[in-house]
Design a protein that fits this description.
This protein is an alpha/beta fold. The protein contains 36 helices and 17 strands. The strands form four sheets. A seven-stranded mixed sheet has the order 16-15-12-8-6-7-17, sandwiched between helices. Strands 3-2-1-4-5 form a five-stranded mixed sheet. It is globular, with a radius of gyration of 30 Å.
Amino acid sequence: MNVRRVAIWIVLCGVVCTFAQAQTTSDDPDVLLKKALHLGDLYNWADAAPLFTQAEQLYAARSDNRNALYAHLGRIRSTMEQLSLPEVSQELGADLDKNPLFESDKELRLFCLMVLGDIDGEIDAAPMRRDWEAALKLTQTLGDKKLENRASGELGFALFLEGDMATARQKVAGALMGAMMLGDTGAQIRYLAAVGHAYVQMGSYDDALGYFDKALKIATANPDAGYQFVVNEGRLQAFRSMGKLDAAEQLANEIIAQARAKRKHVKETQALITAGTVQNAKGDEAKAIEEFQAAIDLAQKGHFTRLLADAQFYLEDIYRKRGDLPKAESLAASAAESTQNSGDLYLLPLRLQALAQLQASQGKYRDASQTYDRASDVLDAMIGNVRSAAGKIGLISSMSSVYAEHFALVADHLSDTPKAFSVLEHARGRVTTELLMSGKPPESPEELEIEKQISRLNLELAKAKSAEQVHEIRDKIFLAEQARWLTPASGTWKSQPWQTIPLERIREGLTANDLVLEYVMAQPHSYCLAIGRDFARIVALADRESIESSVLEYLKTLKTKAASKSQGKHLYAALLKDIPEALKKERLIIVPDGRLHLLPFDALVDGAGQYLVSSYTITYAPSATALYLVNSVPKQPEQRAFLGIGGIPYEQNAELTKLATMRGYINSALVNLPASREEVLAAQAAIRSEGDTLLIGTSATKSAFQHAGLDQHSIIHLAVHGVANEKHPDRAALILLSDAPSGDDGILEASDIVHLHANADLVVLSACDTAVGHLQGEEGIANLSLAFQLAGAKAVVSTLWSIDDTTALYLMKRFYAHLAEKNTVAHALTAAKKDMLRTYGTQAVPYYWASFKLEGSCDHPISLNSKKFSATN
């Protein structure tokens, strides 16, 4: 089974690897079988083939039926790529049911199931899963931990193909860790290669090559491991994606030559497909077609259904670009059918998307919409099967273009606004919406223990005195981070057929002064779905590239503390000018897309030359559905308290700076934030209530914050250092103080935050870059603000760039003053920004106030207890 494509956090590959030539000459079949099984244990089936064949013949001559059958199964596995897989699968299945040796000899039956699992893996995911389920059960009966670990990993591959992402990820990650703990050389190479392939699919090519190098290092130290087809195929894909086309072409030719020499037709087919993509990238269409057609011929002959779908898919793209749309559509339909026949559920939506694109390009708009609906139905089932927020987000991110293209099709050609809205809301802010619909499950003890373990290892890393110690601790941190995948879900989100809130109900939930502006960034033009209480319509905008280019230019200006009203006017014209209904509204609710997530809309400049903050109250939401649901949640009847954290003496904690630097959070020393203490005290003073908690100075540790009874605080305010991480969004962090005796490293990562149960009406992140993060397609943006929303916060104030300590203090004082007057959260933040503009005039450039954005349920005041407070200093 070949290495397969992988979702965002999921590590999956298909076939076992093949390895180096072994020299064994003997007339003793026991010696031959032992050597062949050793090579097979290293997944070096190609070099094991002649040994299995010779052993089978010698055992047969001795009438040793049991061992002859054992060697026969090994020969089948070693030469499976040269056989008719459906016929062999049928024969082995029948033998398992009828041959009495398989009933009496459990080890022999297990070997047969494993061989059958590999063969079925090239045909269809469902029988593959059944094979490995049976094999796993048998390994447990036999007490063979090594084969149990492998069977579990193979079952993970099958479950991934069927769309069960959560279980697949746990099993594959478990197999990697199990291989390391058991010293299983072959499995270590296999699963390290799988991790590398996962990083290739996520676009992290340097990370991928690091894993491939680790796998090759282990293989080199074990000469019997042989030529690494799977590892080198991964390296080939990385080189191609990085634009290193000459290196990719050279490696492709090497893999094809090795595969042909060893008669490894599956490997040859896979390499031909990748070689075709390399030639296509180099502009040699004729050579690419030749490679793809050769792959199709091999795949059809060998019944490699999954690879057949791949080759058809890539060949379709060439004919599409040539303008031969009927030929391209025929190939796209065949690729979708082959993908469905192989049970490869993960790739089916993308294949259906390609077919829908071709149907639409030929004017078959309703056919295309129906094909997109098929893709959406498959995706709904897959998303419903994923139990973690990260898994859902990764899947939605990788499939976002399916929804965006369907929206554009309906908007441009079917003129059906409710349908377009439904299409978009299937993905937009989906994770937040599911949390609101079904509630957040409690974290398991295993999850919490893993976070503690990582924290303790971070402290050890800061104290490491040699490069060897650093390397050893980093390896332990890697294993601990992988262990997050293995923790059993203590509760699951309800897996139910996905239904969006109808557009009519969304409109009914708005006030007369509300206007929802839901943007879709696309080519050749973008869109804004404008929704008011008495109307809904789709407005066509400029193309994504031109809008986002203007956004980046304006952000560059704002972050340098400059002001360019011409740039602000240009963006206002691009995003709002064609929506005259906005002139009659007081509140704009922005559902952004793409780089609009990074744009402060209240810093746009209207036709009169005024910043929009002067005319509108502007808030943000992950989707119109999420906004409707969060506003529908019954308000907490009890009044609760304030929790503030700040005034941290960073400069007196050199070890914290060392740790944050070594782990890649920062690249310069942490400095004190002098105004942060006063900011927290001023906020508390404005809304003083019974049961308030202040963590100031040396008490502001991560551990103290996590154990401060977060679910009992209505407002949580953090005035600390914040760091974004666009490459690894789960590592975005707030930096608090460490507390070594309690194993507290002081780094509050996004992955820690989502485990919290905040239940706050408002979280204020008065820290740098807390609204900045990795763009995730229709799911939105991964940042610290989202982490707190996933932890249960109803509304979050976050920042779009590095903030000024002193002006942040002024803005927060005014914000809390307005909040104390029982204004809504949205009004309070807008009023504070207006106060700054009135007080400082032209000196109050957007840099000082526009960074702060408000997301979530913002149209209500916040009630707190109104007596004494407790402070920890």
